Amino acid sequence: MQAQENEQQKIWRTLAELFFLDNEPQDEDFDYAAGLLKDAGWDRNITRRMLVECIAPVAGANQGHLLWPVIGEWAGFDSADLFQKIQKRMLSREIRPKWRYLFSDWYCERMLKTLGIDRLINRL
Fold it and tell me: Where are the domains of the chain?
């Protein structure tokens, strides 16, 4: 892990851990994430877009335990790998046509709804 994460990376890691670790986030976890987002100037639209388009497609693979119950608990993310994959996803979305991501966005939106995205969005 980097010695010092920048603000954006801290938000990415926090959101990935909030929604995509095999645990049950508490209200305090959502409050902490909402505080980080507010301090960084992220609103509801930015937060939802980043979660759906960039964070969920990368970190959501950790939710495999929802599909295959034999997969064990995953206790954390390799931050450097997570950041690299999110950045790669962002660059990919800039150069490829939007239609290419329609199914992925739809699926990630549904997954996040199931995982309680509104618990976070309503705090912003």
Answer: 7-121
